[in-house]
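Feature request, filed as a ticket because there's no other form

It would be nice if the structure record came with a short human-readable summary line next to the tokens. Right now we just get the raw output. Example of a typical job, pasted below so the devs can see what we mean:
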Amino acid sequence: MSEETRRPRAPITESDVLAWLETTAAAVQAGEVNAQELIDILGELRRASAACADASDWALLAAREGGASLRQIAPVFGKGYVRAPAARLEKLHRQAQNADQWLAILRHKQTA
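Raw output as currently delivered:
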């Protein structure tokens, strides 16, 4: 098994979402999905989006703990400068000092 195949992957990708969106849009246009179903989907998507943001924050903390510099992380934020990840880390550090603490907070939120 190569190193690449063992690397953890995100549970969902941009292409997964686009493929789902294309299929769902076609079903909506064909009248196969009603307004209440769309509202239910909206709620699911908003919860999933929040979960993805939480996972992204965990990965940011873990990357920094693993030795990644802000300059290495910055392109992922879509900016060529370090202000965006630095600001996010500053905000996260008000709640958790490391990835393990953040994960504990997320677990507590889920059970609350």
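Something like this underneath would help us a lot:
The first helix runs from residue 3 to 6.
The chain has a mean pLDDT of 92.
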